[in-house]
Amino acid sequence: MISSLIILILLYLVFKYVISWINYYNQSDRRFGNSTWRWSYDYPVVGKRDISDLDDKFFVRLRRKRNRVITIMYLLVFLFFIVLMSFFSNLLLIILN
In a 3-state reduction of DSSP, which class is residue 54? Predict the structure, then answer.
């Protein structure tokens, strides 16, 4: 139980670190907007022309880095949920026994 509590704390700290990177990328270019949870599109949308790597190399590469960081954030949320459920089950076992 103590190990899962330590893992939860570490996951929370890493999550805050990843969120700060997402905020950094959002502030680096105004075209990103302020969304923390949403990926930016990297493929052509029907009816709209998306920016390709040839049009704006810096922005597209920055957008891909930001999307990778958002993927890591989702992975951390998933891991946090699994460890939290393990922590609660151990806690309930202690309470009920």
Answer: coil
Q: Give the pTM.
A: 0.80
How many residues make up the chain in this entry?
Answer: 97
How far is 35 from 33, CA to CA, in rounded Å? 6
Residue type present at position 97: N
Give pLDDT tens digits for 10-35: 999 999 999 999 999 989 888 887 88
Q: How far is CA 30 from the centre of its chain?
A: 19
CA 83 → CA 8, 10, 13, 60, distances in Å? 7, 11, 14, 35
